[in-house]
Amino acid sequence: MRVLKFGGTSLANPERFSQAAKLIEKAHLEEQAAGVLSAPAKITNHLVALSEKAALNQPTDTHFNEAIEIFYNIINGLHAENNKFDLAGTKALIDAEFAQIKGLLEEIRQAGKVEDKVKATIDCRGEKLSIAMMKAWFEARGYSVHIVDPVKQLLAQGGYLESSVDIDESTKRVDAKSIGKDKVVLMAGFTACNDKGELVLLGRNGSDYSAACLAACLDASVCEIWTDVDGVYTCDPRLVPDARLLPSLSYREAMELSYFGAKVIHPRTIGPLLPKQIPCVIKNTGNSSAPGSIIDGHVK
Ligand code: ADP
Ligand code: ASP
Ligand code: MG
Predict the structure, then answer these.
(1) SS percent in the chain: helix, strand, coil, step 5
(2) Rg value, the chain, Cα
(3) CA–CA dist 115, 160 (Å, integer)
(4) Which of ligand 2's atoms lies nearest the C-alpha of 203?
């Protein structure tokens, strides 16, 4: 089993979303695949702004409408590419999520504040809808999908906005043996549950960590982080033009780079991979043939 995580920029529009879907499909045909998805780019920021602005009784319509538009654009494009894609069904799911958000925002506006518990349930909706759209994409292609629901199967400890996953208990709940070999596995990033069964988040940028946790639970052969650069560089290649690509790094080097701010992987990504020595590969969705960077236990 290979775990492939796609970040927001890799899911931002129909072209990129479909590229990500095809990479999961290719991996699935080679060796069963599990896709872990972030929200499409900009969505989480809109969702965060919605509850914060509602608590201050500020206008929220622009964030609300722009967020819905991003989803409509993706599903319209996916349907244009394959008319078997369930446009009406996915649109109904998007509308239902946003109708719920609207109700919550009204309550937040009345209360003049937002509890973390409620904020968590709003901020994670982008991931949930990414999974709904990806499931519809695979079903339109005739595949059968197994959804790992992180709000039931990833047990975490900590606060509502930044919790840490209990890998042993989550491994039991994910129960790899119960997943049919033909199934394409999908799981929303960024989310888990606490011991009361309530939804919690894994912190901003936490979908990399979600992927690592799922890789550990499934004892995957690799955890692939698909993003918008060719791999891990000596420093941010968008800020430093002569940054060097690192073809291979040790777990320790990757941890150090991410703790010192290399946003390309979340600092908590390596932890769950270490005990089983699962390699982590960073790849570019827009340049999939580039080798990327491999992070593993070999001291370089
Ligand atoms: P995603 O949406 O796929 O999770 P992120 O924006 O979180 O992507 O991370 C990718 C970005 O990380 C790159 O676009 C790059 O600008 C930034 N980055 C920062 N430091 C590094 C680094 N050392 N190597 C590669 N990318 C880096
Ligand atoms: N969508 C979440 C965020 O923007 C999680 C992630 O993308 O990793 O923080
Ligand atoms: Mg990221």
Answers:
(1) 50, 20, 35
(2) 19
(3) 9
(4) 9
Condensed to tens digits (0 to 9), the pLDDT of residues 116-163 reads 999 999 999 999 999 999 999 999 999 999 999 999 999 999 999 999
The pick from 70, 207, 210 for probing ligand 2's pocket by mutation, whose C-beta has the most ligand atoms within 8 angstroms, reads 207
Sites in the chain below the pLDDT cut of 50: none
CATH architecture of the domain 2-296 equals 3-Layer(aba) Sandwich (3.40)
Task: Tell me the pTM.
Answer: 0.98
pLDDT at 300: 59
Strand-strand pairing, 163-165 and 184-188: unpaired
Tell me which residue of 102, 100, 68, 73 sits closest to 87, measured CA to CA: 73
**What residues contact 54, with CB distance under 8 A and at least 6 apart?**
60, 105, 106, 108, 109, 114
Ligand 1 centre distance from Cα of residue 202 (Å): 18
